[in-house]
Amino acid sequence: MAELKKTVLNETHHQAGARMVDFSGWEMPLNYGSQVDEHHQVREKAGMFDVSHMVVTDLFGTDSKSYLQRLLANDVARLKSPGKALYSCMLNEQGGVIDDLIIYWMGDDRYRIVTNAATRTVDLAWMQQQLSGLDAQLLEQPEVAMVAVQGPEAREAVLGWLSESSREIVELLERFFAVEVKEGFIARTGYTGEDGFEVMLDAADAVSFWQAMVATGVFPCGLGARDTLRLEAGMMLYGSDMDTDTTPLESALGWTLALEPGDRDFIGRGRLEQQKNEGVKRKLVGLLLEGKGVMRSHQKLLVGDREVGEITSGGFSPTLNRSIAIARIAADIVEGCEVEMRGRRIPVLIGRPLFVRDGKPVNI
Amino acid sequence: MSEIPADLKYSKSHEWVREEGGMITVGITDHAQELLGDIVFVELPEVGGEIDLDGECGVIESVKAASDLYAPMAGEIVEVNEALADSPESINETPYDAWVFRIKPTSSDALEQLLDAAAYTEVVEAE
After folding, report:
1. Nearest Cβ partner of A342 from B37, B40, B66?
2. How far apart are CA A55 and CA A102, in angstroms?
3. Does the pLDDT at position A1 exceed 60?
């Protein structure tokens, strides 16, 4: 087996006693002790995650916008002010999801794209392939480290670290916007359902930033807490909740599709329109377990003798103190069903996939 | 390295066993709780049930996985730790205090079949 890749913060994690795991070829922290404690820290105060394994790619050139309007299922024309971020799926011709991503418009013909580590090779090859014949260039930024500082006290912590001149700018940053300051690229985005920043900075500055955050009381958090936080926030995980075999319409991501204007010919559009006309047969929903135990990925869902679907992400919600899940089920199932767990069937409630937002439970 | 008290007996499936006045108390080891991560739910066996050696008697669910509990000795389940329903995390915090169930063993020499601390240490190190 190839040696695991390491982020610039790897040694810092080891020194903090992190339990490290292999996450798609990267040695990353799973937790620093208790992932449930880490989860609560983010909901109640502030926590941070090393997400430097994610792929940061800059795009520039006069054809950048038209390139993205073909590449992405969401429409970058929706980005009206510089710094604004957009969540989008990148589809194949069959409407399957190659990856989901965040794209920031940095003004003029410059964009920054953040994609998943697990799909890096496929993504970059696909993105490169679509460039052909256009005046646009992709430049991966492997020297950029990324730390997500999240939670109700996260903004304050990061603002306190910035120089006065940068702070004046970043303070005004609205949600889902980013700005470049001398310390780095600061985005008010995240994957936890809490306010906070994703800070992209030169790898050489990452350790001192991390230590400065620790000194102000920001709690280091691992991938375990990151997963339960995003699950509670109803944020999809690529490879679990969607992949190349599912379209955004089957993944509760219809809101990320820009089908208007109708003449924007993005990749996968034909299949999505066809699926809309024929009727979407499966949907992604949120589940609450009505009993004890913990739902896990791939467990089957049943109504009577009929198998109606499968859990795509299951787990325990520390905020709700019960098991929650995201599942893909037949479109006609609206009320309850049962989950088969370890040979037993336990009832579940079905609702939209959103359980917690800004620290507060959301009624399913 | 996880804690392995010298005065307890152990099973290969990571239960610890304490003998007191003919009854045995069973929990999971420090090593086991570390592997499982945060424990969020414990399914206890039924009091009064007869259980075979290595029979399934409960489930421990953590944030990571569900893990069956096995009886380290044959006998009757005489008591379960109901407090675990409200505070399953006490197994993470104090694994050798947060016992799970008590058995009245069928045979008194069954204890000799279990591992001592030194033998269990070898099991853990071999993993």
Report:
1. B66
2. 11
3. no
